[in-house]
Design goal:
By secondary structure, the protein is α+β, with helices and mostly antiparallel strands. The chain is 39% helix and 21% strand. The two termini are 36 Å apart. It comes from Actinomadura litoris.
Length: 473
């Protein structure tokens, strides 16, 4: 419990997505620029924590006019007050999750006038929705979301984690408003409620599912990747501010690209920087932001993300989070990031490949690593780089070989066989399928449900302990 509370204290700012905000600096575009952000929100580090630690925004501002501009960084707890200050004209630039973005745009359009805002770039995204998940206590008897009927579920209402739970629950034949009791709680409170037994499940967004599972304090009941609905975070700006201070906005977006490029080129160093600034375990940060991570970082506004955004509008209205449906077309404006990226924009926006793919050679299996659907990594304690592995069986073989050498495994990551969600190998549910052949005999699943579905469909397949899989791979 102490570990949960300590982690919770570090992660309070996760609630309602991330925000990067400024104190409106006026039409002159000079002077003090206040940037607010949520330091612990993993998918927005390129517009927040990592951007700040590397000093990229300040460097880009200097190029505009020496010491003419100064930046004051402020760390906010939630997205709601950022939107409120934006509507009051006191915040210029913000960064937040897709659902908070919808709320921001809806309220700004309802208020009208100078309060109008627009979504101008993306930070991190996952096309399947794997950034969100539902976890339960390790000793929970629940095997699927259907088993939560009549139970209490902790969620931050209006967040992407809450949205994932509601939409997924409906697919399991549950009415989230009647069949379960949803407690609207901050993640810290919800984590404590789960551990104390006051909540049967905990539905949240990155990095909570991975954090609790990695600590051994929960197991993944539902992987958001099963939903198949894209989730993302993006940068929002007041329209009038953008018009009056386009050079500053473009400097911010260029700095975001600088941070993105650094994350791609130095994934471990970036994860360690974020971990140091936030108090999050670096192994959890790297799960999401590392090479081949759950989050893909690309600032371009992609069609699948925009389409998902449109589909989210009626959903948020149906659960009462927004009153006025957002008019998406006036809210989406990729003209600024298009100018910053340049001629390659359309090609980059059309691509959904992770720019930080896992590459190299699997030293144990002696094969080239390159298939994103199967590639993983082993992080050995004391080594400055992770070791690439070609597939699940090769991961097990690598772990066995390293253990034989007396080396300690800091973390091991591998994609889920069905959903493709990258997860901790030692927290996966492993299935042995003798009919699959030696190279594919062992298969990892992030949830018990996924493993059982495979076993039911493949005669002779059975669930095996991770340690057993390592010994026999």
């Amino acid at each position: 419990m102490k570990r949960v509370l300590a982690a919770g204290a570090a992660l309070v700012p996760l609630l309602a997505g991330c925000t990067v905000a400024g104190n409106a600096s006026g039409g002159g575009g000079s002077g003090e620029i206040v940037v607010g952000y949520q330091s612990k929100t993993i998918n927005t580090v390129t517009a927040g924590t990592l951007l700040r630690s590397q000093g990229y925004f300040e460097k880009r501002l200097k190029e505009l006019g020496g010491d003419k501009h100064s930046v004051v960084w402020r760390d906010y707890d939630t997205g709601a007050p950022i939107t409120a200050q934006m509507l009051a004209g006191k915040i210029d630039i913000g960064s937040m999750g897709d659902y908070p973005l919808l709320i921001n745009g809806s309220r700004s359009q309802a208020q009208g006038g100078d309060a109008a805002t627009e979504w101008v770039s993306v930070t991190g995204y996952n096309l399947r929705g794997s950034l969100n998940g539902v976890v339960v206590a390790n000793d929970s008897k629940a095997k699927t979301l259907r088993d939560l009927k009549g139970k209490t579920v902790s969620a931050s209402v209006g967040s992407a984690g809450h949205g994932t739970f509601v939409q997924a629950a409906r697919r399991y034949g549950l009415d989230p408003s009647k069949d379960v009791k949803v407690e609207n709680q901050q993640p810290t409170v919800g984590a404590s409620a789960l551990q104390s037994g006051h909540a049967a499940a905990f539905a949240q967004f990155v990095a909570w599912p991975g954090l609790l599972v990695n600590r051994g304090e929960a197991r993944l009941l539902y992987d958001g990747g099963q939903l198949g609905v894209p989730t993302f975070h993006g940068v929002v700006v007041r329209k009038q501010y953008a018009k009056d201070n386009e050079k500053i906005l473009r400097a911010f977006l260029q700095a975001q690209i600088d941070a993105t490029n650094y994350l791609h080129a130095h994934p471990l160093e970036a994860a360690e920087s974020v971990a140091s600034a936030t108090g999050l375990p670096v192994e959890t940060v790297y799960l999401y932001n590392g090479a081949g991570g759950v989050a893909t970082f690309d600032p371009t506004v992609k069609k699948p993300l925009r389409d998902a955004f449109v589909q989210d509008v009626p959903f948020l209205k149906s659960i009462g989070v927004i009153q006025t449906p957002l008019q998406v077309d006036p809210f989406v404006n990729d003209s600024y990031i298009r100018k910053v990226v340049g001629p390659s924009y359309d090609g980059q926006a059309a691509s959904t490949a992770n720019p930080a793919a896992i590459t190299g050679t699997d030293e144990v299996c002696k094969t080239k690593v390159g298939d994103a659907a199967t590639a993983g990594e082993v992080w050995v304690k004391g080594e400055p780089r992770t070791r690439p592995v070609a597939d699940p069986v090769c991961l097990l073989r690598n772990v066995k070989a390293l253990q034989g050498q007396g080396k300690q495994i800091r973390a091991a990551y591998i994609p889920d066989t069905a959903s493709g969600t990258r997860w901790f190998a030692d927290k996966d549910v492993w299935v042995e399928d003798p009919s699959a052949g030696a190279a594919k005999r062992f298969k990892p699943f992030a949830t018990q449900e996924g493993a059982q579905k495979y076993v039911s469909a493949h005669g002779g397949a059975r669930v095996v302990a991770y340690d057993e899989a390592v010994k026999r791979a």
